[in-house]
Amino acid sequence: MVVALNNHLQTPMYFFLVNLSILDLGSISVTIPKSMANYILNTRSISYAGCVAQVFLFVFFTEADFAFLTVMAYDRYVAICKPLHYETVMNSRACVQMAASAWISGILFSVLHTGNTFALTFCGGNMVDQFFCEIPQLLKLTCSDSYLSEVRVLAFNACLLLGCFVFIIVSYVQIFKSVLRIPSEQGRHKALSTCLPHLTVVSLFVCTGVFAYLKPTSSSTSALYLMVAVLYSVVPPMMNPIIYSIRNKEIKGALRKLTE
């Protein structure tokens, strides 16, 4: 709302931030409200349709969220390392195409994972050992080796995720090289104070997500899986608003103008 109502914030970076904010809100709304409702009502149930919807929406929001984080790393790379080409490279058409690609990729991966998971035959009971319907925990309930097709899809998805992560790392390495050449100490501090928290949250999301989805389910305790699930599903969407909005002077200044 702040970005939409302030003409000075009509830039590619804030356009992507609006999309990221919507995805973060959606991602955390898929899991936390249901968990809170179950706690308040002293129940641990979820319908089959509710579980399908939860898997579909969670995968959609998290996949699209990470796609936008990748796009935003590229945006910052162009802005800092190639400032003279920024307006040409990050024009409005390119931004819309990148945003549309991120949303569409989220939908495609979500359809693939949800369809592949719920096409399997479940015969291991109906107890999901997690606070939401998580694919690795659902695969524990499937019969024999029927889950291997989804495991292959998850492995392929993890490879793409790691590819995007490498792209983000390379982008930030180039950014840090450019930042260290800035003569002003204040300018270096400002750039690093934004980049380092972003990189930390992305690293946390990737490492815990890959661990949760690729580690053999029989080799870890329930408590460990619960902690890992919280780290990749709750912490990143909670930290992104702090990194990009609460710590952002332009956002805070625009918010003050709206409330005055």
The rough form would be described as globular
Please give the largest β-sheet: none
Task: Kindly provide the radius of gyration, computed on alpha-carbon positions and rounded to a whole number of angstroms.
Answer: 20 Å
Poorly predicted residue ranges: none
* SSE order, one letter for each helix or strand: HHHHHHHHHHH
Record field, number of beta strands: 0
How large a portion of the residues is in β-strands, by DSSP E? Answer: under 5%
Instruction: Report the average pLDDT across residues.
Output: 83
Portion of residues in helices?
over 70%
The N- and C-terminal alpha carbons lie at a distance of 15 Å
> Helix/strand/pairing class, anyone?
mainly alpha
Count of DSSP helices?
11
Question: Could you list some keywords that capture this structure?
Answer:
0% strand, 260 residues, mainly alpha
Architecture blueprint of SSEs:
Blueprint: H1 2-5, H2 12-40, H3 48-81, H4 86-89, H5 92-118, H6 135-139, H7 148-180, H8 185-214, H9 222-233, H10 235-246, H11 249-259
Helix pairs in contact: 2-3, 2-10, 3-5, 3-7, 5-7, 7-8, 8-9, 8-10
Q: How would you characterize this protein structure?
A:
This protein has 11 helices and no strands. It has helices at residues 2-5, 12-40, 48-81, 86-89, 92-118, 135-139, 148-180, 185-214, 222-233, 235-246, 249-259. Helix 2 packs across helix 10, helix 3 runs parallel beside helix 7 (148-180) and helix 5 packs antiparallel against helix 7 (148-180).
Quick overview:
The chain has 260 residues and is mainly alpha-helical. The protein has helices at 2-5, 12-40, 48-81, 86-89, 92-118, 135-139, 148-180, 185-214, 222-233, 235-246, 249-259.
